[in-house]
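re the bet — no i am not wrong, look at it urself. input seq straight from the record:
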Amino acid sequence: MAFAAITYDIKPGYEKELTEIFGDFKRVKGSQVKDQAGESAGTILATAVFLRDDTLVRVIEYTGDLDAVARHMAVQPGVREVEKKLKPYLSKPRDTDTVEGFVATFRRSLLNTVAQISARDIPVTA
């Protein structure tokens, strides 16, 4: 399992509004990610959102291909709705209205991974 974190540059002082936007998030029914050919390309396992001052971070736990995950997210109604609702609170505009724009913005917003450590990676001993 891997994690990806993407950032949003936001206007400070809107914590309540941003919390409401993500609190109303409509999760997709399935977590399976398909590639452009319709083949299984991964799974979105979990998402968390963090906010402080003028930075919002979305953390995604996933398996498989991260580009396929980004493309999958780009067409999900709940993600599209959140991106639309976030626009007034962004200090830097994000081009997320198209799949290509969303994926490019996703890549630009991606934080570099420094470490990923999980208890799941440690063998269980009796």
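see?? The mean pLDDT is 91. told u. also Helices lie at 15-23, 66-74, 77-86, 99-109. so pay up
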